[in-house]
Queue: 2 jobs
Job 1
Amino acid sequence: MTLLHEFLKEADEGYIVIDRSKKVSYANRFVMYLEILRESWQEKPYYEVIKNLGIISLISATFGEKKSLNEEISIGDREFSARTFYTDEGVILRLSDVTSIKNYEKSKKEFVANVSHELKTPIAALKVILETLYEEDLPKHIKDMLGRALARVEEMNQLVNDLLIIAKLESGEEVLNIEKVNLKWLVDSIYEKFREASENEQVDLINEVSEDAILHSDPEKLSILLKNLVDNAIKYNKKGGKVGIRFYRKDKWNIIEVWDTGIGIPKQDLPFVFDRFYRVDKSRSKDIPGTGLGLSIVKHIALSHGGRVEVESQERKGSTFRVFLPGIEDIK
Ligand code: ADP
């Protein structure tokens, strides 16, 4: 028994080795505990002796595509990360128990959703009280303080709303209401909402979408997605700058581009901007209100449509966010 065999035998992960002729040549003790192999599995084809259909199709895909793959699989009431390693000699499957991580993530998300929900009502009440007071004839320094308090309450309100949107999207319970959407009209109505903000920032909003750009998507979610991108494109812009939206089709994708001539995003930050709470360089974002959740919402909405989002940016030149949405026939 080699050292490696001894290690694999005792490992707290499952290992199954399938040789080139698709027969199971090795399984460690952890796999035996899971009871996913039939008795006398040695040197038998994997699809005859493995009892879990998810694992069989993962191994079969690995042989078919000749590359290592990754999937989450349930065995009984536990969740596993199943990873295959493809080699010319055969395939190795590794099973890691991720049940406690999954449970932790689930309860963390539920906690955030519940707290956000509970905060909604008191924040709304606070807002009404402050707005009513603000209307009163009060000394200037009190009014200034009330104005600042109102701005803070509005930030809290935005944070809670963003957290609730993310919680809903992540729960997987949210169903998409797919409808025909005229993109030009949608962009017009979104620009209308940002008219004041763009005038204050002296930023031009350009709608390059043609009348016949019809998409199949959830109009409410698409609107949230575009509002977040336009909001950023105005916020992180310069006086006299421009923001534009264009649309085109490529292969099976409907592509919406939101571009701006703003301050851009440093190269080292690009991979993280879609992460929750990520804000580029705190000092630069300090005076610009935001939660760091906008782009995470954008990503989730694109994913929920079976699409994706990518960004290209150059510092001081501007950014382009590209949203890929599948054609109607590809929406699940
Ligand atoms: P925030 O609420 O901070 O705007 P987002 O998730 O929407 O959060 O964006 C994350 C970060 O990415 C922002 O803090 C900002 O630094 C950067 N960012 C997003 N959009 C743009 C853009 N169009 N131009 C430059 N920077 C951007």
Job 2
Amino acid sequence: MKIAGRPHTTIWPTPAGVEIIDQTRLPHRFETVEIADLEAAARAISHMQVRGAPLIGVTAAYGLAFGLSADPSDAGLAAAKARLRATRPTAVNLRWALERVGARVAPLPAEERFAAARAEAALIAQEDVALCEAIGEHGLALVREAATRKGGGRVNVLTHCNAGWLATVDWGTATAPIYKAHDAGIDVHVYVDETRPRNQGASLTAFELGEHGVPHTLVVDNAGGHLMQHGEIDLVLVGTDRTTASGDVCNKIGTYLKALAAFDNDVPFYVCAPSPSIDFSMSDGVAQIPIELRAEEEVTHICGLGDDGELARVRLSPKGTKALNPAFDVTPARLVTGLVTERGVIAANARAIAATFRR
Ligand code: MRU
């Protein structure tokens, strides 16, 4: 998608490695960082310079390749996978990408592993763009339907966190249908949840929608239910970090509450789910999906741009206040209207998922 009118992706190859947009600096600073070794890739994922399930997967794939350039032995491969896997526990794309690259290189002689891993990482990145674009096409039909229901009136979409192009290589998952609709001339407007504590909505979704010219309004996380009660939301579109084989959806903390409110107000609640974010080994999201617990400081403190133009971090709560910071929650399948996958819009249940992906 576009930044300052020019097409961009979130990660791109350089002669030495890859370059990423440092998402901890957005929206106030646009800075890129080059990553050329395993440790830098692992740190970029843990510190959330890159984040969002698909982009975490792509970065991990490149990180594994860089690890193999330093040590292409079986022990090196195992150690690099373990290091990257330990960075963030919830998004299954991380494990998926590591297993895919690992399986590609394991049968090869050591001297061929780095090049093969790097090529596989590039392929994963390229495929991610295609998956997201396909999700955009299938989701576009949902936005069109909503526009028709409203007699061509403005379609209001609510989204949570950033499941935008910054969370993927390009297009995004939840935002792909929005970009497609906007580009097709449909009057689409997005309510952007700020998404405490890290404010991916306020800082990233608002940034990327603004750069692409999509009309949007930032709302506090608690506003969604109220807006739905007053007919202000036609469609909820969110992403996913891990969807079980039974259709339970794990996504950014607060997604579950939006799904409950949508269910109570008959608002369609769709999850945009590329197949690498489906965990076919799990069937009970609440019981089985590991939920990342992040630092208390993300809750007790907040970062922003001061009036002096400098980035600042300030405390919100009294000194010493304890905070709990689960980063994700699980929305049970029964609250999900449908999954927008690269193969079409399907029901969030075991039968539809298995039939679509032939498992
Ligand atoms: O903690 P984050 O910023 O990595 O969480 C991101 C999300 O929860 C996204 O909604 C999810 O990864 C889907 S991204 C297409």
